[in-house]
Design a protein that fits this description.
Length: 207
């Protein structure tokens, strides 16, 4: 599917075909494509828990305010923003930049210092914003890539974060910006026309 067509046709689907599976390989393909998303300093501060097991989806549904799509979708992706991504990925990122010729070896410490200054201390608000911002870029890429693979999605903001962390063994220092339900539109369901969108004149300014 053409990328412009995918953006125009993507919808947030509420009604998924229950019981229709997506293979692990399909999920891996989807995530591998989305993993090409941009990120600040290429630090990729995201993690994903793929929930496919029917019993685990029932648990997730309870954490998601009993929304049926959390159970009926073929898979639900728990998107995790990791503030520690700076420290965990910095070395490999700089190794790659150096090997590919993006920087000279003597600039390594300079770039490391720049990143630390930009993103702040590990437990700072600045660092949390960094992690959530970049994970959201990754999430949007997942939803566009899903269209290209013939899948439908719904980004979910209605859930209890502490419930999900407890039930799915996610450390307290991580942040869950959203869940993404992935699957196929339920047979016989016709989508209503796309809802209200603001006119560009309301929020765009040229200078």
């Amino acid at each position: 599917m053409d990328v412009i067509q995918a953006i125009k046709e993507r919808r947030s689907i509420n009604f998924f075909e229950a019981g229709k599976e997506i293979s692990d390989d399909q999920i891996r393909e989807l995530l591998a494509i989305a993993n090409l998303s941009p990120s600040s300093f290429n630090l990729q501060p995201w993690r994903v828990v793929v929930v496919k097991n029917p019993e685990r989806k029932k648990v997730l549904r309870q954490c998601a305010f009993n929304q049926p799509k959390a159970e009926e979708a073929s898979a639900v992706l728990i998107m995790i923003a990791d503030p520690k991504g700076v420290e965990e990925n910095m070395g490999r990122m700089l190794d790659s930049w150096q090997a590919l010729g993006y920087m000279k070896p003597e600039m390594r410490e300079t770039y490391k210092g720049m990143a630390q200054n930009l993103y702040g201390a590990e437990n700072s608000l600045k660092r949390k914003i960094f992690a959530v911002k970049n994970t959201s870029l990754f999430a949007m890429s997942i939803m566009i890539a899903a269209m290209g693979l013939g899948l439908e999605t719904h980004p979910m903001d209605g859930f209890g974060e502490e419930c999900i962390k407890k039930e799915f063994n996610i450390p307290a220092d991580k942040i869950i910006p959203m869940l993404i339900a992935v699957g196929h539109l339920k047979s016989g369901v016709t989508l209503l026309p796309r809802a209200f969108r603001r006119d560009l004149s309301e929020f765009v300014r040229f200078e």
